[in-house]
Specification:
single chain, elongated, 33% helix, 15 helices, eight-stranded mixed sheet
Length: 464
């Protein structure tokens, strides 16, 4: 590509002239997706522009190369005294990889590199932090940064990302604080990243975020052998690593889940039976989902209640309100299938289940068989890509469930089971929605145990 063609490509991507000159002075040629991401980074300067920019999606898209180019050769060059934090998950050769990046990207940009700090002559500096575990990041959070650059962002939890955000602030004239993210699908942070970046991009409603998808096909500088190795992959690996499919997480259990096929508006039939799945938690979330079934055997998840650090009276009130939204009287709920932990007796003889009964909600024991429950969900999801029609549909109101299902992965020690995932310290990103829905799905076809107190013993057997 000639210099003139490159300049025209950058202009078409929305890069301002001085940004293009900065890249040319650094002898850097960026790909079209990288130029689009660079243009978004410049939009962060505007009061009405984004504050968070993401780039990536698949392996081989040139994420690390681009972010060092943008942060050092554009931002730090044009703003003297800028201070940035660059967080990178360390592997066996993590620090050597940074050395490779410096040689590849900053070969024409004079800089000083000592003890994990990259300095420019104008006083701008980039603090490079390596982390193996999330707790390692805390060592970098006591300072103030003008921007943060997080590689492999889906490898950190949402609560840790929130703490990093509190360190990004600036009083430099003309500079607006911002966060940059490079990552691929999968990992503990997959759900929050997808919710904040991918979903708004798909809906065309990006406000404070921008995301540019890039794959190995967009990167002419990747050696052909690497591209061939990615193209030879099959199954979820191909979808995640080659295509950057955000509906597929690494090791994803429910690979047939499809937002387009399984999420729909639901109007409940007048005579359809209704029941609930219920997973209790205090520090973790309490999750409850009313479910119903039509005459053809299609199961519908109508709504959800999901809240942590909340006392039982408040939960009971919220459950009442959820039913009222759908015009459902409480007596229409045939049963509430709950995990066995709610029936454990306290020393004084009380239990969580009895506390709920005192507030008008009678719980019954759920079938908690994890492997059969996962298999039942898989069967109901069908496989639209193979022509097997789904028989489970989820209301758009069930945001936590829709976010949860694509992130669940196989348990390496029990491949037929879903890996148990606890919520983080703020009650986010756990598998509570899955457990609650699983209890309900299994309850539709099995005899349930006695209620803890009040009401007659259910006699329902077979399919509701």
């Amino acid at each position: 590509m000639s210099v003139q063609a490159y300049i025209e490509a950058a202009r078409d991507a929305g890069c301002p002239p001085d940004q293009v000159r900065n890249f040319l002075r650094a002898n850097l040629v960026l790909t079209p997706p990288q130029l689009r991401a660079a243009a978004h980074c410049r939009q962060c300067d505007r009061p009405d522009g984004p504050t968070d920019v993401g780039y990536g999606g698949a392996r081989g898209g040139g994420k690390s190369h681009f972010w060092i180019a943008q942060a050092v050769c554009d931002d730090m060059i044009r703003f003297p005294g800028l201070k940035g934090l660059y967080l990178r998950k360390v592997g066996k050769a993590g620090k050597e990889a940074v050395e490779d990046l410096r040689r590849d990207v900053l070969h024409s940009t004079p800089h000083e590199w000592t003890s994990g700090i990259l300095k420019l002559a104008n006083g701008s500096r980039l603090i490079v932090g390596h982390f193996r575990n999330e707790s390692d990041i805390d060592a970098y959070l006591g300072l103030q940064y003008d921007f943060a650059l997080i590689e492999e962002a889906t490898q950190i939890s949402e609560s840790k990302r929130d703490k990093i955000n509190t360190c990004v602030r600036s009083a430099k004239p003309g500079w607006r604080p911002r966060k940059y993210y490079g990552t691929n699908p999968g990992g503990v942070g997959h759900s929050w990243f997808k919710r904040l970046f991918i979903d708004p991009m798909r809906r065309g409603k990006e406000r404070l975020t921008r995301f540019v998808q890039a794959t190995v096909r967009d990167n002419p500088f990747v050696n052909p052998e690497y591209r061939t190795s990615l193209e030879a992959l099959t199954g979820w690996l191909r979808k995640a690593w080659l295509d950057g499919d955000w509906d597929v997480a690494a090791g994803m259990y429910f690979t047939t889940w499809s937002h387009d096929h399984h999420v729909r508006e639901i109007k409940i039939g007048k005579h359809w039976p209704v029941w609930m799945g219920f997973d209790y938690g205090y520090r973790h979330n309490t999750y409850a989902s009313p479910q119903t079934i039509d005459g053809d055997g299609n199961v519908y998840i109508l709504d959800e209640h999901c809240r942590n650090r909340t006392l039982i009276p408040a939960h009971a009130k919220a459950l009442d309100a959820m039913l009222a939204r759908h015009g459902l009287p409480k007596h229409r709920i045939s049963k509430v299938a709950a995990g066995h932990d709610v029936f454990s007796a306290r020393p004084n003889g009380s239990s969580v289940a009895k506390d709920y009964a005192a507030h008008g909600w009678t719980l019954t024991e759920a079938d908690v068989d994890r492997i059969n429950g996962a298999a039942e969900l898989l069967k109901l999801l069908g496989d639209p890509r193979e022509g097997i029609e789904p028989r489970l549909f989820v209301s758009p109101r069930c945001a936590r469930l829709i976010e949860c299902l694509p992130t669940l992965v196989h348990d390496d020690h029990r491949p037929e089971d879903v890996l148990k995932v606890d919520a983080d310290e703020d009650g986010r990103n756990g598998d509570d929605p899955y457990d609650g829905v699983r209890y309900g799905v299994m309850a539709r076809q099995r005899k349930v145990g006695s209620p803890v107190s009040g009401g007659a013993r259910p006699t329902l057997t077979g399919t509701i």
